Amino acid sequence: PAMDYAGLAEAAAQKLGLYRRDPGGWRGCRHTREVSVSWRPSAEFAGNVYRGEGIVPASPQDVWECIKPVAGGLRTRWDQNVKDFEVVEAVSDTVSVCRTTTPSAFMRIISPREFVDVVLIKQYEDGTMLSAATNVEHPLCLPQPDFVRGFNYPCGCFCIPLPGEPDRTQLLSFFQTDLGGYLPQTVVDSFFPTSIAGFYSNLTKAVKTLKA
C-alpha cells in the first residue's frame, strides 16, 4: 500500500506541537550565547529528543528564508550538517518527500548519512512558521551504497515572531534522529548538543549575511 505521506507529516507536526507545549522532563545539556539545548528520552525510538531554543537577531521572514526545506534553498549553504537536499516528490503545496545527505562529522567518526523524510510546512495564525519532518520510505530513494541510512523521528523548527520586536525571532527546534550504523552511544550523546549549538551559531551568521 502507498504511504500516506500527508497523514504522516501532519502527525509529525502534531507531535512537535505537543513537545512545544510540554515543558516537563527536559534536562539542559549545552548553553551558548545563541541557544539553550536540552534533552529527554524519546518516546519514538531508543534515543533522545533534543530541544534547542534561542533568539535569532533577524525577522521571522529572514530566518524562515534560511531554514525552509525547499529545493535550491539556502540551507545547504550555511548548515554544515546538510550537504545536499532534494525534493523527491511534491505531495501537495505544503507536503513533500525529501532526501537529505550529510557529510562525515565529528572528526570523521560519523560517516556520511542519508535521510528520507516527509516534510510539512505550516503557518499559524500568529505568524509562526513550522517545518516538521519524519522518516518515510519512497520507491525513488533506495539506500545508496556510500551512505548510512539514518532515521529522523518527528523533528523540526518553529519560527516564532516576538510581539513588538520585528527584528528578532524565537527559534524553537526539536531534533530526534537515529543516526543508524554502529556508533557508540557516547559519540551520539556528545554529537547532538554540539551540532545544535553549531546550527544556531551558523544560522545567526547566515541571517546577518542575508541582511547585509
For the biggest sheet, the summary is:
10 strands, mixed
Estimated share of beta-strand residues: 35-45%
The CATH topology corresponds to Alpha-D-Glucose-1,6-Bisphosphate, Chain A, domain 4
> Could you state the CATH homologous superfamily?
START domain
Gist of the model:
The protein has 212 residues and is an alpha+beta fold.
Topology (SSEs and partners):
Elements: H1 5-21, E1 27-31, E2 36-41, E3 48-56, H2 60-67, H3 75-78, E4 84-90, E5 95-102, E6 113-123, E7 129-135, E8 148-149, E9 151-152, E10 155-162, E11 165-175, E12 177-178, H4 185-211
Parallel strand pairs: 6-8
Antiparallel strand pairs: 1-2, 2-3, 3-11, 4-5, 5-6, 6-7, 7-10, 9-12, 10-11
Helix pairs in contact: 2-4
Kindly describe this structure:
By secondary structure, the chain is α+β, with helices and mostly antiparallel strands. The protein has one domain: 2-Layer Sandwich (Alpha-D-Glucose-1,6-Bisphosphate, Chain A, domain 4). The chain is 26% helix and 37% strand. It has helices spanning 5-21, 60-67, 75-78, 185-211; strands at residues 27-31, 36-41, 48-56, 84-90, 95-102, 113-123, 129-135, 148-149, 151-152, 155-162, 165-175, 177-178. Strands 1, 2, 3, 4, 5, 6, 7, 8, 10 and 11 form a ten-stranded mixed sheet that branches. The protein has a two-stranded antiparallel sheet with strand order 9-12. Strand 2 (36-41) and strand 3 (48-56) form a beta hairpin. It is globular and about 50 Å long. The termini are far apart. The mean pLDDT is 95. This is STAR5 protein. Keywords: Lipid transport, Lipid-binding, Transport. It comes from Ardeotis kori. Residues 1-212 form the START domain. One of its GO terms (molecular function) is cholesterol binding.
